[in-house]
Amino acid sequence: MRLLAMSKEDIVKLWQGSERALLNRLQDTLKEKRLLEQKLAFIQKTLLKPP
Prior knowledge:
By secondary structure, this protein is an all-alpha fold. The protein contains one helix and no strands. It has one domain.
């Protein structure tokens, strides 16, 4: 994509769309991280319990 051939408005719209997509991806990743941390804590707690 050639930025020189695009209008300022199109570049801003493209930037904002990319920013939204990255923020959504970040939120999904942080949510997945929390779930994995919970699973890890459960596994660690289970392993530390005496039989």
